[in-house]
Amino acid sequence: MRLGVLYGIVLGLALLTAGCNAMPGDPRSGPPIPPDQVTDFHILYNRNCQACHGANGRNGPAIDLANPEYEALIDDTTLRRIVANGMPGTEMPAWAQSAGGMLTDAQVNALVAGMRREWARPNAFAGGTPPPYAQNQTGDAKRGQQTYQARCASCHHTPAHQQVTSPVYLSLVSDQMLRTLIIAGRPDIRQPDWRHDTPNGGAGQPLSAQDVTDIVAYLHALRNPDEVSAAPLSNAPRR
Ligand code: HEC
Ligand code: HEC
After folding, report:
1. Is residue 211 a contact partner of residue 137, using CB atoms and an 8 Å limit?
2. Which ligand 1 atom sits closest to the C-alpha of 199?
3. How many Cβ atoms from other residues are within 10 Å of residue 11's Cβ?
4. Which ligand is in closest contact with the Cα of 71?
5. How do residues 9-23 score in pLDDT, each as one tens digit?
6. What angle do CA 60, 22, 18 make, to 5 degrees?
């Protein structure tokens, strides 16, 4: 699995760099900084995040953290919680030592503050109001299927594009990641945001919060086929 391999590389690199830092007598940089004392955002990001989220937060296999719409969509508490605890059941690891990761609280805080400083932009939504980050309604998978056909399939029906409805793809990503992606888009790979503006700059027909929730319910049902008949989809953040 692509992301699994990457995780190995990241850990390997982190250990290697830690080893270099600990090397005594580097004349260029004065006394070495122990790895758990590093609070420089760029060093922390490059060591721990860039293999999956891309150099400068773009063009990695996992979502682009440098997308200003993403930074505007997610609040500080949630962002910090995800960096600290990871996204259980996905390739996104926990980073806080309290959750079994490698970073101190000060380092987790430095990452969150750095992402905001470098990548947030005022008025990222240009006056539009996106659906909320967290799902707060109940989704309807049937309606979601229709909305998917109408709003997503036009780009995603060809083999050249991500086969979003493939259970193999869906088994790699959480409902929240799908929701995040549909709302904030991924400008680095040309996935539109919820406004669905056309690629040549024309204004699109925005997806409503209910549309987004329904599409995620549809994709959730494709991933977890045994649940569909058993119970209505709840809005709990499940995979
Ligand atoms: C205007 C074309 C277009 C539309 C409409 C569109 N997408 Fe995409 N989407 C893309 C492109 C381009 C990519 C980049 C990967 C690729 O080429 O398949 C992508 C990637 C994705 C990915 C993979 C993201 C990742 O990080 O790997 C998902 C999931 C996705 N789209 C879901 C959707 C859903 C759900 C909808 C409908 C709400 C939708 N897309 C509508 C163009 C589109
Ligand atoms: C091994 C690959 C990997 C590494 C390393 C990694 N991430 Fe992630 N990250 C992911 C994946 C995959 C997801 C989406 C998981 C899902 O399906 O929900 C994700 C999700 C996230 C999200 C939440 C996205 C959302 O939907 O709101 C944040 C924030 C994030 N990562 C930040 C970081 C930061 C900061 C670092 C470095 C400290 C980091 N990640 C390192 C793979 C990685």
Report:
1. no
2. 1
3. 14
4. 2
5. 555 555 554 444 445
6. 20
Ligand 2, residues 5, 40, 53: which to mutate, most atoms within 8 A of Cβ?
A: 53
- 10 Å CB burial of residue 140 (0-12, 13-18, 19+) is middle
What pLDDT shows up at residue 148? 95
Rounded Cα distance between 201 and 207, Å, is 17
Q: Where does ligand 2 bind, in terms of residues with CB under 6 Å?
A: 3, 6-7, 10, 48-49, 51-53, 62-63, 65, 74, 79, 82-83, 87, 90-93, 95, 111, 173-174, 176-177, 180
For residues 2 and 10, the answer to whether their CB atoms sit within 8 Å is no
Burial class (CB in 10 A: 0-12, 13-18, 19+), 212: buried
